[in-house]
Known about the structure:
Layout (H helix, E strand, L loop, with lengths): L2 H6 L2 H10 L10 H12 L1 H15 L7 E4 L6 H9 L2 E6 L2 H14 L3 E5 L13 E5 L10 H11 E11 L4 H8 L7 H10 L2 E6 L1 H5 L13 E7 L1
Parallel strand pairs: 1-2, 1-4, 2-3, 4-5
Antiparallel strand pairs: 5-7, 6-7
Amino acid sequence: MNEAQEHAISTKRIIKTGFEMLRKTGEYKDPEAYDYIVDKFLGRSKLAEDLINCLQKRLPVQQEIKVLDEAAGTGALSLELAKRGYKTYATDISQDMMGKLQAKAKERGVNISPVLANSNNKLPFEDSSFAAIVTASANRYITDLDTFLRETHRVLNKGGYFVWPILGADIIPWKRNSGLDQPTLSFSLAKQMEKHGFTVQTDMIGSLFRNTLKGVPAYAIPTYLIGQKK
Length: 230
């Protein structure tokens, strides 16, 4: 987002979208204000670069490798994936967000396949469709963790990777939306991933010191749970 676009976004729009980010649905009506918030206050573009670096160490880019960005929002991860050369698919529950993602992809000259889908329901893909799945925006809207993990596991290829950043910024809205018994800490979520058929690695210390995350607020520094489908 350039400086002129930032100035065009009023404080009223930012506050309204900020409140929308606390609701359960995730169906935002102002993608430009959402873009501003997640990049300005959550360092989303830096997170995208760091997360895809994490994936690329395990899954080098090759022609026709299919990767899904689940709950993609306006596409920070999708755009980075496509820029690197992955065959990129993106899901989100909001048509408005998908429209913004497509506009950004066209502007940057990359191809992304958008699909409307709710991460709490069955995903509209065949079994073993993707070599990897990533997400940055899903957490606070996951109200059915079992379905989310079961479906993520189902549509992954055997040996495929699920790179899942756990952010401190998501804990309160996640529990607010899903209940106080909702696991939100990386240790508990890793156990849930293992229950659903993943082997799990945790990357917490590294993310604190990587230059790609320099300037990102502490509450938006991720602990990565890196699941591999058995």
